[in-house]
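## Example record

The block below lists the input lines for one assembly entry, exactly as stored, with component labels intact.
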Amino acid sequence: MKLPEQVTRLGIVIAVLLAVVLALRFFILPASLFSAKPHQAATVVREMAKPLHHAGVASCRKCHEEQFEAKYAGYHRNIGCENCHGPSARHAADEKAELPKKPKDREFCLACHAYDASRPNGFPQVDPQQHNPRKRCVACHDPHDPVPDETPTECGGCHGRIEHTKALSAHALLACTDCHKVDEQHMVHPRSALPTKPQDREACGRCHGLDSADPAASKARVDFASHGGTYVCWECHYAHLPEGPRK
Amino acid sequence: MNKRDFLKEAIVFFPAAGVLSALTCEAAGKEPSGSAAPGYDPTDHWYGMGVDVDKCIGCNRCVEACKAENNVPDEPFFFRTWIERYTITSDGETTVECISNKPRSLDQVVPADPNVVRTFFVPKLCNQCAHPPCVQVCPVGATFQTKDGVVLVDEKRCIGCRYCIQACPYGARYLNPNTRTADKCTFCYHRITKGLVPACVEVCPTEARIFGDMKGKADRLVRFERANVVSVLKPDLNTEPKVLYASLDGEVR
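Predicted structure tokens for the full assembly:
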């Protein structure tokens, strides 16, 4: 059987069109039209080329070694220079282009050091209304080496809230060190030596056990054999306010 | 050439010229040209961040530094990173409040409320998930994960449809009003690829944030992971965040 001529022509036209389309798709059009990779690579290049605003402690140190050393030995050792002095990449590239700011107002220090209940225990905080109101912090404290007038000797120097709670509780007469062993080092570098907590029931049992002779705890004696299973006391009772709500 | 021939040829010539010029632009401009800085191999790294909730003092310096470093709009509702205050009262209620969106009044010290059981700050940012939901939903492939594990947004491809903002379980994305594209934390990609730390880590005064590389053997992040009980936000979603939290309270979402 012979194909009619118009069918053959149509077939040829379709074959040519197909060939053109395939050639366009696979040989002529660049692969980047169909792949996300070049776009992603271009984005990565673009992101990496963005300008720096913070130079980083290492580049500050190149010129300001003295300040860095002073800061590194003190309580502010972990604070990057640009925390206070602001983004200074332009100053690092050309020292005359821009001078970093030197914040001297009270509010700047209080952003970290004003009392806030949500701040971690032991972080040095002051009540701005009590602590030399309206005086600039830098008048007494060197921000590169912010030594408190002296290393705190009382626990309440840092743990004021706990001390305050305890002073109004039945445990007012107990010293912090009756329950916590505190290394001297903790006063200087708080996180390098954490105080201990009582790890056994005996610590409370000395006063609160049935056989205790301590008159102060006479109202709160329990039979340690039957009370509380094997839990350490402070897992249920808050020792700084023992008459408060139990957990 | 008569008028009919001219029109015939013009019909073919102008579209063909348009297509060809577009193709040449595409081929010349978009080919990856030196995809990374010399000496930087993204496959060597897998970046993450460690956040110690116990150390955060809520000073907002990280938020300010981030805005300065990344040109985040100043308005107090655009954030790449922000800080939340969690307050848990004795009746079991948890209140969460963003403290980065209002100027703090420093004259007024809020006295400790006896009903508050626990209260603390939690820094939040893009979790740079290993399985990012935002990447899955992007209809134009504008957001993607780099080989070093950072999720980036292609500003030129993003059409600003906000699907990714909806899809992010951590609320870490926002629509930048200037570019009208989605924007988010990049771990300061321009800094970390040069060996610097992100701006928020650079300025954090208490080392509540640390930055590191999970592929580094003695890296800070690896040590952080080893030394702390770390958890991630919303682990049930299986997004595998690379922002690790230490001392994280169970109430934090």
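Chain B touches chain A through 63 residues (CB under 8 Å). Chain B is about 25% helix and 20% strand.
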